[in-house]
């Protein structure tokens, strides 16, 4: 039975939730370590400085995982809903006390058009491999004066599209599309989605951009 189980397809969330160290394997074979322990733990000072404390109203946590940030928002009495495609991750988020639903962000989302902020933490702007499509979708989910808070990579990254897999304990997941976006490239992508950079904040080596409807945005360094 064990051998049969090991032959079953390994999903990306199987890899992340396994408790083992994970690597991102690019299409060229390059391996990049993943900080799984941070994702699975409690929100830290950087999470609060860059994400939690920047939210002022009802917040949609896209790709919430096990609810690290959703839980922290709820502890501040911010109405927060986590969304994730992994039923196991959503179950774990709910066990933490976070409000979360098993949903694809491109499917119907509760309270569409009423969210004050939408979060793309931990590089989740890469979801689906098409950041502009994702940002346009979030713009439709927000209030007219809403904002998308996006965690991006550092300067020099640009926009990198790839078909990747995760590797854990010698096993590989299925392939899926992902995109990395650097702070130097986020303004151009935002503009394509009808948004503009309102501010950029950095803390402990991490970087977050706040994207506003274009007429309200003002880019800062």
UniProtKB/TrEMBL annotation:
One Pfam family named in its UniProt record: Methyltransf_25
Any coiled-coil regions, as ranges: none
Residue ranges of every copy of the Methyltransferase domain listed in the record: 60-146
CDD domains per the UniProt record, alphabetical: AdoMet_MTases (cd02440)
Keyword line: Methyltransferase, Transferase
A single GO molecular function term of this UniProt record: methyltransferase activity
SUPFAM superfamilies documented for this protein: S-adenosyl-L-methionine-dependent methyltransferases (SSF53335)
Biological process (GO), any one: methylation
UniProt protein name: Class I SAM-dependent methyltransferase
Species of origin: Nesterenkonia halobia
